[in-house]
Amino acid sequence: MAITGIEHIELKGIPALRLSIANGASAVLSLFGGQVLSWSPPAGGERLYLSPLAAHDGLQPIRGGIPVCFPQFADLGPLMQHGFARTAQWTVLTERHGKDFALVSLGLSDSAATRALWPHAFEAELSVLIEDNRLDLELEVGNRGDSEFSFTAALHTYLAVHEVEQTRLEGLHGYSYRDKTDANRIKRDSGDVVEIEAETDRIYHDVQRPLLLREYRRSLGINAEGFADVVVWNPWVERSAAIADLPKDGFRHLLCVEAAAAQHPVRLAAGERWWGRQTLVEL
Question: Which UniProt keywords apply (predicted)?
Answer without folding.
Answer: Isomerase
